[in-house]
Amino acid sequence: MYKKFNKKRIAQVTGLTLAAALISPMVSAEVSGEIGVTSDYRFRGVSQTAGDFAVQGSIDYSADNGFFAGAWASNVDDESYDADVEIDIYAGYWGAFGEDEEFEYDVTLTYYTYPGQDESSKYLEANVGFYFAGFHLAQWYTNDYANADVDLHYTELNYSYEFIENWSIDAHVGYSYGDGADLDWGEDYMDYSIGVSTELAGVGLSLAWLDTNLSDDNMIDDGPWKNEGTVLATASYAF
């Protein structure tokens, strides 16, 4: 799945469901958290758990003045870093503008870490996101992807539409480009998803189809970096 969305990142694609990306990043000063499980941890279309399930959680602090910070964690199965756990630390600022403050934005710095591994598994990424009427547009950038001194850009557009009470259709499209994409795959590529989400008895649920347009030569149907299309199921509980 995408990295947790309510990290003010995008879950990836960064809450445990796509709809979480379209919720206002914060309302008032508070400490909150979320824990969940997903059938596959996909980041920008690529599995970080070799196609297996993941348990994920976060803790967040948001202040009245717009500042927020937090941490998000997941199990991983990443042969590049020989890692078992990913912990991302992030902080940023949220604001709103417009006659009725109907436009919202956030600016975030995220530090990706894999505890127990060497420095090559850590890097910093920045993003700017805008929210309006169910849409979420975000631009991500790092000049040191995977600590390899190469740049990586990621542009994404998300949309959530409540078609009946408490049920939403969620759509996502993202594009990875720059030297970092070339380092991983030798090509720029797009990832996309379409799904539905709801909440039952306080548990957020979602079901989505995810895929990429990576070339046939880069398709992986099993094991680490699995990227073939898949149905992704998630459940999460916020507290």
Automatic annotation (TrEMBL):
UniProt xrefs under InterPro entries: CHP02001 (IPR010239)
UniProt-listed Pfam families: Gcw_chp
Top-level lineage group: Bacteria
Coiled coil feature spans: none
Entry keyword annotation includes Repeat: no
Keyword vocabulary terms for this entry: Signal
Signal peptide start-end: 1-29
Entry keyword Signal: yes
Stated name of the protein: TIGR02001 family outer membrane protein
Classification lineage: Bacteria, Pseudomonadati, Pseudomonadota, Gammaproteobacteria, Alteromonadales
